[in-house]
Design a protein that fits this description.
The protein is an alpha/beta fold and 324 residues long. Helix content is 44%, strand content 14%.
Length: 324
Amino acid sequence: MKKVRNRKWKILFLVFLFVAIFVLSVQSIHHFHIQSTSKEFLKYVLADSNHFLEPVKKDFSYYLIKYALKIDLKNPVSVFQHSYQGPVSTTSDEVVMNTPTSSYVEDPYPEKQDKKPLVYIYNTHQLEEYSTANIEEYGVVPNVMMASYILRERLLDEGVSAIVEDNDVSAFLQTNNWNYASSYKVTRLLMEDAKSKNPSLKYYIDLHRDSVGKNISTAKIGDKSYARILFIVGLENEGYEENLKVTQTIFDMLEHDYPGITRTVYKKQGKGVNGVYNQDFDKNVIIVEMGGSENTLDEVLNSVLAFSKVLSKYIEGEEKYEEQ
């Protein structure tokens, strides 16, 4: 009888030890990024494949994770988000709205960085994230960096050479002990460096994500759902009229080809906003806010495809005009 009792306690101890190790292992994940899974996921997306999106299997481990650890497997990215303690300034409403929510995404195809690019795609706020509702258990990061890599691929498909800025903006901020509001200072330095290394650059796309609700950030066009596109022009740049002209033209072309996909050209100035957004660097610096935090990856992909088609058409027209 005593032996049976001892065996029972040993089994309970082993179960307790297993659960404790499991909990500690999951908690330790908070200290790591998930670049590798994001990279693989991007390769699938860029190959137009969605067969890997499978439902979560509801077995014993599923319920243990859900109820014991309080982790939602339909939104696994949340496990990794809590570790980020980026430098954030609360001096303006704009900065608070754009606080980081995800993690850096590695370029899945660095070899496709064109040697004579026309378009430079970058993200001043690289960590702005979209909805994770349809990515299931893969734990990828569907953020604006991911959208930038896909935009590059689609522009290449349209015959327009492009590169994506793959330096980690957050790392620059932390190294220099700058607050989050200094993100535009970082991307200005990166833009200057990119231009010095790639004199062929003529167009600069700063891709963001807005924080509005899905009822505002989503458009239904035909049988497809799109993440609506908002353009921003800072009026505190002395040459903003040229930026506004370029932006308005692309806005009009998008609205013509995809009625309802755009929201507006938002002109910003005054207290609490940047007002320049590095648009004084060149008249072709275009600030794009694609969709909102509740838009799905599919909706973002649809909008990236639409934007790439219109942007390539605009660039083709500009290049022909300059040749005349």
